[in-house]
Specification:
The structure is a single chain. This protein folds into four domains: 77 residues, no CATH class; 192 residues, P-loop containing nucleotide triphosphate hydrolases (Rossmann fold); 220 residues, Rossmann fold; 97 residues, Alpha-Beta Plaits (2-Layer Sandwich). The protein has 18 helices and 30 strands. The strands form eight sheets. The protein has a seven-stranded parallel β-sheet, with helices on both faces. A six-stranded parallel β-sheet has the order 15-26-25-16-23-21, sandwiched between helices. The protein has a five-stranded antiparallel β-sheet with strand order 2-1-4-3-5, with no helix packed on it. Helix 1 crosses helix 8.
Length: 667
């Protein structure tokens, strides 16, 4: 079709077989408004209704020879989908065997009409902020500052200390953040000074608060845009619209920030890339690290992966020469003490004598951090005779205790286990196998009478504490920042943390411990209780990259990720069998399974049917495109067979096949 303007539209539909661009004629009444990037509504016959979408491009020719349907409406004049993000969504979808529209749902926030109208009416294309170039401090020869310009792709081992900012905290006066936040802020400011934008993604709000505070010391207020999943929708959409403006900015946020539009992108950085919060739980399940890698290759910008520990995935890229490693000066690493689990007489059973003395001495001058494995009072019970985990007889959930003296109850359904018996040995008595943060705080309060005890976990949000003496009991990842740093750090429950069944359990524990140790004041003792072996050695010597290197060697031998890529194929036995059979010989290493999906884990893992099975496909990185394309075709064939009954437009048949590439938790 020629002679008329044609809009190529990506349509918002859950049907995988419609994951392509559709051609629509632009009516005369919309000829000025139908431009690339705007939201539109279009007729979609398969849905029997109008569908939302985005114009990706406008041309004079259509691939379809017949009569084209016309655009129905242009929803708004705001060009919310930039060409770079449209291309990025297509690349991520193809890599992950998913749909581009699923990626765009993560990249473009829901429309807020009032916010958008105010933005369109304002003079949003203002003067770019003026920023003086800065160089990252705390490294030998200012290595990170040079690396952003020279090697462009770096694995940055962060300085494990706190830094004092120039600004003041509204409650505590002096403001302290992790030195990593200052380093990334300086790199972002350096990028901004060159006239380019920077995107930084961090795991959660605690990290975001630190990073924003560090940027506040270096940049004017309008130079930073924060995209936070916890923000009200209006604030998030307002920040997103600011990212569309034709001026450089520093864009910070959670995992979805890696999709943020940015004017002349100069750097993209991830803090703590192995944190599970960087893993997207929604289709197509792309990890923020993988999105950053694809986007850096797409735009040619600098790339920084920073952390107190180095993930095995980043270590692989370092060994391939794709990333350059940058390490801090060895003189600034924490003083870690590894001690046995036994306690001296008169001390609480979980705290060894050395840790007890370190806590007592630290409390003389300031706060002491106690890291524990779990929140709550005493969340996990086991059979007193055989040690088998105590499970609910109704739903098979874990049993726990809500408060001292209360009967055991299920942590999932709440049922009281009044007449519980062990399914393994039929014993009827239980014992605690770990203590939560509340129980630990209670014990320490009795052991240190008169000392303030603060609990920080998922239910109690404590982000900062002052420099007064106090015992700070925190679950892993919820440790507050203390003014001046903690005078001692106790790492308890290490054996319980390591007991979790996971391929990455060692990596996770080393990351939790290292992040906590980095909160200590220089020279303060960091006591790791009850853990020995390579993990304890890596923490004590602060040589986390060596542990990542050893892990990568083992995984190459066993053909585990990230030495190879994997795809999990879940669905009905026939759908899984057909999908595996569609793979071309030579494009994959092997197929494990299919095996039945554990019904207890089915809701969390996204099983599609009561009789669901799962197969695991292992393949080399060079075959990623071929495997993803074959599995995507299998998804489309499966979806095409699942049709709704005629006349029932509200019915949506359940999917018979789900595919996830690079699943971080195959268990």
């Amino acid at each position: 079709m020629a002679g008329a303007r044609v809009a190529r539209v990506i349509v918002d539909t859950p049907l995988p077989q419609l994951d392509r661009l559709f051609d629509y004629a632009i009516p005369e009444r919309l000829i000025d408004d139908a431009v690339p990037g705007v939201r539109v509504t279009v007729p979609l016959r398969t849905a029997g209704r109008l569908a939302d979408g985005y114009i990706v491009e406008v041309t004079d020719h259509a691939d379809f020879d017949g009569a084209l349907s016309e655009l129905e409406t242009v929803v708004s004049a705001a060009r919310v989908l930039t060409p770079e993000i449209a291309d990025l969504a297509r690349r991520i979808a193809d890599r992950s065997a998913g749909s581009a529209i699923d990626v765009l749902r993560l990249a473009v926030p829901p429309r807020m009409v009032r916010v958008e109208k105010a933005w369109l009416a304002s003079e949003h294309a203002g003067e770019p902020p003026r920023v003086e170039p800065v160089i990252a401090r705390g490294y030998r020869d200012d290595a990170p500052g040079r690396a952003v310009d020279e090697s462009r792709r770096i694995a940055l081992d962060a300085v494990p200390r706190l830094a004092r900012l120039l600004g003041e905290h509204p409650m505590w006066g002096s403001q302290w953040v992790g030195a990593w936040a200052v380093t990334l802020a300086e790199l972002a400011a350096r990028t901004l000074a060159s006239g380019r934008s920077a995107v930084i993604a961090v795991p959660d709000y605690r990290d975001l608060d630190q990073l924003q505070a560090a940027l506040g010391d270096l940049l004017p207020a309008g130079a930073v845009a924060r995209l936070d999943a916890a923000q009200p929708n209006q604030d998030r959409y307002r920040a997103f619209l600011r990212c569309l403006e034709p001026m450089p900015r520093v864009i910070i946020g959670n995992r979805s920030a890696v999709y943020a539009p940015a004017h002349r992108l100069g750097m993209i950085a991830l803090w703590d890339d192995s944190d599970p919060l960087h893993s997207e739980p929604l289709a197509p399940y792309a990890h923020a690290r993988d999105v950053a890698l694809v986007r850096a290759e797409q735009s040619g910008c600098a790339l920084v992966f920073a952390g107190h520990t180095r993930s095995v995935e980043v270590q692989r890229l370092v060994e391939l020469g794709w990333l350059s490693a940058v390490s801090p000066d060895p003189a600034v690493v924490p003083r870690v003490v590894v001690t046995a689990a036994q306690a001296d007489e008169g001390t609480p059973a979980r705290i060894p004598g050395g840790a007890w003395r370190a806590a007592k001495e630290g409390l003389a001058s300031g706060p002491v951090l106690v890291q524990v494995a779990r929140p709550g009072y005493a969340p996990v019970l086991a059979c007193a005779r055989c040690g088998e985990a105590a499970r609910c007889e109704r739903c098979d959930g874990p049993l726990g205790l809500g408060s001292s003296g209360a009967a055991p109850s299920c942590r999932w359904c709440g049922a009281i286990a009044a007449h519980w018996s062990c399914s393994n040995c039929h014993a009827t008595k239980v014992r605690l196998v770990t203590r939560g943060s509340a129980r630990t705080a209670e014990e320490l309060g009795r052991a240190f009478p008169g000392v303030r005890v603060v609990v920080s976990d998922g239910e109690r949000r404590v982000t900062v504490v002052d420099e007064r003496p106090a015992l700070i009991v925190a679950t892993r990842g919820a440790e507050p920042v203390a003014a001046g740093g903690y005078r001692a750090v106790l790492l308890l429950d290490g054996d319980r943390m390591l007991a979790r069944e996971s391929l990455t359990v060692g990596d996770d524990c080393l990351r939790w411990w290292s992040n906590a140790a980095a909160l200590a004041t220089p020279g303060a003792p960091v006591v790791l209780a009850g853990v020995a072996g390579p993990l304890a050695h890596a923490l004590a010597t602060w040589k986390q990259p060596e542990y990542a290197r050893a892990q990568l060697v083992d995984r190459r031998t066993l053909r585990f990720p990230p030495a190879v890529r994997v795809a999990t194929v879940t669905g009905t036995p026939k759908a899984v069998g057909d999908a595996v059979a569609s793979l071309t010989s030579g494009t994959f290493i092997d197929v494990l399974g299919p095996t039945p999906v554990d019904s207890a884990r089915a809701p969390r893992r996204g099983a599609v049917a009561s009789d669901a099975v799962r197969a695991i496909v292992r393949f080399e990185y060079t075959q990623g495109s071929a495997v993803a394309a074959a599995l995507r075709s299998a998804i489309i064939r499966s979806a095409a067979k699942s049709r709704r009954p005629r006349g029932d437009r509200g019915y949506r048949p359940p999917p018979t096949l789900r595919v996830r590439l690079d699943d971080p938790e195959i268990s």
